[in-house]
Design brief:
alpha/beta; 7 strands; 257 residues; globular; binds adenosine-5'-triphosphate
Protein backbone atom coordinates (compact mmCIF):
# COMPACT_ATOMS: atom_id res chain seq x y z
CA UNK A 1 0.00 0.00 0.00
CA UNK A 2 1.34 3.42 -0.94
CA UNK A 3 -0.52 6.27 0.71
CA UNK A 4 -0.08 10.07 0.50
CA UNK A 5 -1.10 12.75 2.96
CA UNK A 6 -2.15 15.80 0.93
CA UNK A 7 -3.95 19.11 1.14
CA UNK A 8 -3.42 22.40 -0.67
CA UNK A 9 -3.76 24.04 2.71
CA UNK A 10 -0.84 24.17 5.12
CA UNK A 11 -0.92 23.35 8.81
CA UNK A 12 -3.82 20.89 8.70
CA UNK A 13 -1.98 17.88 10.12
CA UNK A 14 -0.49 16.14 7.08
CA UNK A 15 2.84 15.60 8.81
CA UNK A 16 1.41 14.76 12.23
CA UNK A 17 -0.82 12.18 10.56
CA UNK A 18 1.89 10.75 8.29
CA UNK A 19 4.24 10.19 11.23
CA UNK A 20 1.69 8.77 13.65
CA UNK A 21 -0.08 6.61 11.08
CA UNK A 22 3.27 5.20 10.02
CA UNK A 23 3.94 4.47 13.71
CA UNK A 24 0.59 2.67 14.17
CA UNK A 25 1.28 0.57 11.09
CA UNK A 26 4.70 -0.38 12.44
CA UNK A 27 3.07 -1.27 15.77
CA UNK A 28 0.74 -3.59 13.82
CA UNK A 29 3.85 -5.47 12.65
CA UNK A 30 3.78 -4.04 9.14
CA UNK A 31 7.07 -3.11 7.49
CA UNK A 32 6.70 0.61 6.92
CA UNK A 33 8.52 3.33 4.99
CA UNK A 34 7.84 7.01 5.63
CA UNK A 35 8.75 9.27 2.70
CA UNK A 36 9.31 12.91 3.65
CA UNK A 37 8.63 14.89 0.47
CA UNK A 38 8.53 18.26 2.24
CA UNK A 39 11.54 20.59 1.88
CA UNK A 40 10.83 21.61 5.50
CA UNK A 41 11.68 18.06 6.54
CA UNK A 42 9.14 18.17 9.39
CA UNK A 43 8.39 14.46 9.28
CA UNK A 44 12.10 13.65 9.53
CA UNK A 45 12.47 16.16 12.38
CA UNK A 46 9.47 14.61 14.13
CA UNK A 47 11.32 11.29 14.21
CA UNK A 48 14.45 12.90 15.60
CA UNK A 49 16.37 12.86 12.33
CA UNK A 50 18.18 15.96 11.14
CA UNK A 51 17.22 16.48 7.52
CA UNK A 52 20.48 18.13 6.49
CA UNK A 53 23.06 15.94 8.21
CA UNK A 54 24.81 15.11 4.95
CA UNK A 55 23.24 11.68 4.47
CA UNK A 56 21.39 11.04 1.21
CA UNK A 57 17.88 12.54 1.19
CA UNK A 58 14.86 12.71 -1.11
CA UNK A 59 16.55 15.55 -2.99
CA UNK A 60 19.41 13.23 -3.95
CA UNK A 61 16.94 10.57 -4.99
CA UNK A 62 14.64 12.80 -7.06
CA UNK A 63 17.10 15.33 -8.46
CA UNK A 64 20.33 13.37 -8.75
CA UNK A 65 18.92 9.89 -9.27
CA UNK A 66 20.60 8.32 -6.22
CA UNK A 67 18.92 4.91 -5.70
CA UNK A 68 16.29 5.05 -2.93
CA UNK A 69 17.90 2.01 -1.32
CA UNK A 70 21.01 4.10 -0.58
CA UNK A 71 18.96 6.82 1.10
CA UNK A 72 16.81 4.58 3.34
CA UNK A 73 17.48 4.86 7.01
CA UNK A 74 16.12 3.12 10.06
CA UNK A 75 14.35 5.08 12.81
CA UNK A 76 14.03 4.53 16.57
CA UNK A 77 10.72 2.82 15.82
CA UNK A 78 11.11 -0.85 14.99
CA UNK A 79 9.82 -1.66 11.52
CA UNK A 80 9.83 1.97 10.37
CA UNK A 81 12.34 3.29 7.82
CA UNK A 82 12.59 6.84 6.54
CA UNK A 83 13.53 8.69 3.37
CA UNK A 84 14.37 12.15 4.66
CA UNK A 85 13.16 15.48 3.37
CA UNK A 86 15.68 18.15 2.50
CA UNK A 87 15.92 21.89 2.05
CA UNK A 88 17.34 21.17 -1.39
CA UNK A 89 13.93 19.97 -2.51
CA UNK A 90 12.74 23.56 -2.21
CA UNK A 91 14.67 24.75 -5.23
CA UNK A 92 14.15 21.57 -7.20
CA UNK A 93 10.97 22.45 -9.07
CA UNK A 94 12.69 23.66 -12.22
CA UNK A 95 15.26 20.89 -12.20
CA UNK A 96 12.54 18.30 -11.83
CA UNK A 97 10.32 19.89 -14.48
CA UNK A 98 13.08 19.48 -17.06
CA UNK A 99 13.29 15.73 -16.57
CA UNK A 100 11.37 13.19 -18.60
CA UNK A 101 7.94 12.45 -17.04
CA UNK A 102 8.68 14.73 -14.08
CA UNK A 103 5.58 13.63 -12.16
CA UNK A 104 6.66 9.98 -12.18
CA UNK A 105 10.09 10.42 -10.59
CA UNK A 106 9.04 9.24 -7.12
CA UNK A 107 7.03 6.35 -8.48
CA UNK A 108 10.07 5.12 -10.41
CA UNK A 109 12.43 5.74 -7.50
CA UNK A 110 10.29 3.65 -5.13
CA UNK A 111 9.87 0.78 -7.58
CA UNK A 112 13.02 -1.13 -6.54
CA UNK A 113 12.34 -0.85 -2.79
CA UNK A 114 8.57 -1.08 -2.55
CA UNK A 115 8.55 -4.85 -2.13
CA UNK A 116 10.46 -4.49 1.12
CA UNK A 117 7.48 -2.77 2.72
CA UNK A 118 3.85 -3.50 3.45
CA UNK A 119 3.02 0.19 3.67
CA UNK A 120 4.66 3.34 2.32
CA UNK A 121 3.38 6.63 3.74
CA UNK A 122 4.23 9.84 1.88
CA UNK A 123 4.14 13.22 3.64
CA UNK A 124 3.54 15.86 0.95
CA UNK A 125 4.19 19.60 1.25
CA UNK A 126 1.15 21.90 1.14
CA UNK A 127 -0.13 22.84 -2.32
CA UNK A 128 -0.24 20.95 -5.60
CA UNK A 129 3.40 21.42 -6.55
CA UNK A 130 5.40 18.98 -8.63
CA UNK A 131 6.44 17.31 -5.35
CA UNK A 132 2.84 16.70 -4.25
CA UNK A 133 1.99 15.49 -7.75
CA UNK A 134 4.88 13.03 -7.50
CA UNK A 135 3.48 11.83 -4.18
CA UNK A 136 0.02 11.34 -5.64
CA UNK A 137 1.27 9.71 -8.82
CA UNK A 138 3.24 7.18 -6.74
CA UNK A 139 0.25 6.37 -4.51
CA UNK A 140 -2.59 3.88 -4.63
CA UNK A 141 -4.59 6.16 -2.33
CA UNK A 142 -4.48 9.43 -0.46
CA UNK A 143 -5.80 10.88 2.77
CA UNK A 144 -6.96 14.50 3.02
CA UNK A 145 -6.67 15.93 6.52
CA UNK A 146 -8.80 19.02 7.17
CA UNK A 147 -9.30 21.29 10.16
CA UNK A 148 -13.00 21.94 10.61
CA UNK A 149 -13.15 25.72 10.47
CA UNK A 150 -14.57 28.26 8.06
CA UNK A 151 -12.22 27.61 5.12
CA UNK A 152 -12.14 23.81 5.32
CA UNK A 153 -14.83 23.40 2.69
CA UNK A 154 -13.08 25.74 0.33
CA UNK A 155 -9.79 23.87 0.75
CA UNK A 156 -11.51 20.57 -0.06
CA UNK A 157 -13.21 22.00 -3.15
CA UNK A 158 -9.99 23.59 -4.27
CA UNK A 159 -8.14 20.33 -3.88
CA UNK A 160 -10.72 18.23 -5.71
CA UNK A 161 -11.02 20.85 -8.49
CA UNK A 162 -7.27 21.11 -9.02
CA UNK A 163 -6.63 17.41 -8.69
CA UNK A 164 -9.39 16.31 -11.07
CA UNK A 165 -7.88 18.45 -13.79
CA UNK A 166 -4.43 17.04 -13.10
CA UNK A 167 -5.64 13.48 -12.81
CA UNK A 168 -6.90 13.59 -16.37
CA UNK A 169 -3.64 14.89 -17.78
CA UNK A 170 -1.43 12.61 -15.68
CA UNK A 171 -3.47 9.44 -15.95
CA UNK A 172 -2.57 8.71 -12.33
CA UNK A 173 -5.56 7.48 -10.40
CA UNK A 174 -4.96 7.20 -6.69
CA UNK A 175 -8.22 6.88 -4.81
CA UNK A 176 -9.37 9.01 -1.91
CA UNK A 177 -9.10 6.69 1.08
CA UNK A 178 -10.72 9.26 3.32
CA UNK A 179 -11.05 12.82 4.58
CA UNK A 180 -9.68 13.17 8.11
CA UNK A 181 -11.13 15.67 10.58
CA UNK A 182 -8.18 16.93 12.61
CA UNK A 183 -7.82 19.37 15.52
CA UNK A 184 -11.44 18.80 16.41
CA UNK A 185 -12.42 20.89 19.41
CA UNK A 186 -15.77 19.60 20.61
CA UNK A 187 -16.13 22.48 23.06
CA UNK A 188 -16.61 25.09 20.35
CA UNK A 189 -19.89 25.44 18.58
CA UNK A 190 -18.21 26.46 15.32
CA UNK A 191 -16.18 23.24 15.15
CA UNK A 192 -19.17 21.04 15.88
CA UNK A 193 -21.21 22.81 13.21
CA UNK A 194 -18.41 22.45 10.63
CA UNK A 195 -17.86 18.78 11.50
CA UNK A 196 -21.56 18.13 10.89
CA UNK A 197 -21.47 20.09 7.66
CA UNK A 198 -18.41 18.29 6.30
CA UNK A 199 -19.84 14.91 7.28
CA UNK A 200 -23.08 15.81 5.54
CA UNK A 201 -21.38 16.99 2.34
CA UNK A 202 -18.83 14.18 2.08
CA UNK A 203 -20.64 11.31 3.81
CA UNK A 204 -18.74 8.03 3.92
CA UNK A 205 -15.69 9.63 2.41
CA UNK A 206 -14.97 11.07 5.88
CA UNK A 207 -13.19 8.74 8.32
CA UNK A 208 -15.24 7.88 11.37
CA UNK A 209 -12.17 8.47 13.57
CA UNK A 210 -11.49 12.13 14.39
CA UNK A 211 -8.30 13.58 15.85
CA UNK A 212 -8.97 15.97 18.73
CA UNK A 213 -6.89 19.01 19.52
CA UNK A 214 -4.30 17.56 21.87
CA UNK A 215 -1.27 19.49 23.03
CA UNK A 216 0.71 16.23 23.33
CA UNK A 217 0.48 15.83 19.54
CA UNK A 218 2.06 19.25 19.12
CA UNK A 219 4.79 18.55 21.71
CA UNK A 220 5.95 15.12 20.56
CA UNK A 221 7.88 16.28 17.43
CA UNK A 222 10.22 18.45 19.50
CA UNK A 223 11.31 15.24 21.29
CA UNK A 224 11.71 13.39 18.01
CA UNK A 225 8.98 10.97 19.02
CA UNK A 226 5.71 9.65 17.68
CA UNK A 227 2.74 10.22 19.98
CA UNK A 228 2.99 6.56 21.06
CA UNK A 229 6.54 6.95 22.31
CA UNK A 230 5.84 10.33 23.86
CA UNK A 231 2.50 9.81 25.63
CA UNK A 232 0.84 6.59 24.61
CA UNK A 233 -2.36 7.08 26.59
CA UNK A 234 -3.04 10.67 25.51
CA UNK A 235 -6.29 11.39 23.67
CA UNK A 236 -4.18 12.04 20.56
CA UNK A 237 -2.56 8.59 20.73
CA UNK A 238 -5.90 6.88 21.25
CA UNK A 239 -7.42 8.73 18.31
CA UNK A 240 -4.51 7.78 16.02
CA UNK A 241 -4.83 4.11 17.08
CA UNK A 242 -8.49 4.17 16.02
CA UNK A 243 -7.62 5.94 12.78
CA UNK A 244 -4.82 3.47 12.04
CA UNK A 245 -7.23 0.54 12.39
CA UNK A 246 -9.81 2.27 10.21
CA UNK A 247 -7.25 3.09 7.52
CA UNK A 248 -6.07 -0.53 7.42
CA UNK A 249 -9.68 -1.75 7.18
CA UNK A 250 -10.46 0.65 4.34
CA UNK A 251 -7.24 -0.24 2.54
CA UNK A 252 -8.05 -3.96 2.76
CA UNK A 253 -11.60 -3.37 1.52
CA UNK A 254 -10.21 -1.28 -1.34
CA UNK A 255 -7.83 -4.14 -2.19
CA UNK A 256 -4.70 -2.04 -1.88
CA UNK A 257 -3.28 -3.83 1.17
N1 LIG B 1 -4.65 17.28 16.61
C1 LIG B 1 -3.74 18.21 16.92
N2 LIG B 1 -3.72 18.79 18.14
C2 LIG B 1 -2.80 19.75 18.43
N3 LIG B 1 -1.87 20.17 17.60
C3 LIG B 1 -1.83 19.63 16.36
C4 LIG B 1 -2.75 18.62 15.96
N4 LIG B 1 -2.48 18.29 14.67
C5 LIG B 1 -1.43 19.04 14.30
N5 LIG B 1 -1.03 19.85 15.30
C6 LIG B 1 0.04 20.86 15.26
O1 LIG B 1 -0.32 21.82 14.28
C7 LIG B 1 0.80 22.20 13.50
C8 LIG B 1 0.55 21.83 12.03
O2 LIG B 1 0.47 20.40 11.92
P1 LIG B 1 1.29 19.63 10.80
O3 LIG B 1 2.69 20.11 10.74
O4 LIG B 1 1.06 18.19 11.01
O5 LIG B 1 0.48 20.15 9.53
P2 LIG B 1 0.90 20.06 7.99
O6 LIG B 1 -0.38 19.97 7.23
O7 LIG B 1 1.89 18.99 7.78
O8 LIG B 1 1.59 21.47 7.79
P3 LIG B 1 2.45 21.94 6.49
O9 LIG B 1 1.44 22.21 5.43
O10 LIG B 1 3.16 23.17 6.96
O11 LIG B 1 3.35 20.82 6.13
C9 LIG B 1 1.99 21.49 14.09
O12 LIG B 1 2.61 22.32 15.02
C10 LIG B 1 1.37 20.28 14.82
O13 LIG B 1 2.15 19.86 15.91
MG1 LIG C 1 3.78 19.08 6.89
Amino acid sequence: MILSLVNVKGGVGKTTTAVNLAATFAASDLRVLLVDLDPQGSASFSLGIDRDDGEASMADVLVDGVPAREALRPTEIEGLDLLTGSMELAGSELGLARKRDPHLLLRRALQPVRRRYDAIVIDCPPGLSILTINGLAASAAYILPVVPHDLAHEALDRFFGGWERLERSLRAKPRLLGILLNMVDKRTHLTTAMVDQIRQSYGRRVFRAEIPINVRLAEAPAYGMSIFQYERWSTGAQAYRLLGAEVLRRARTAGIL
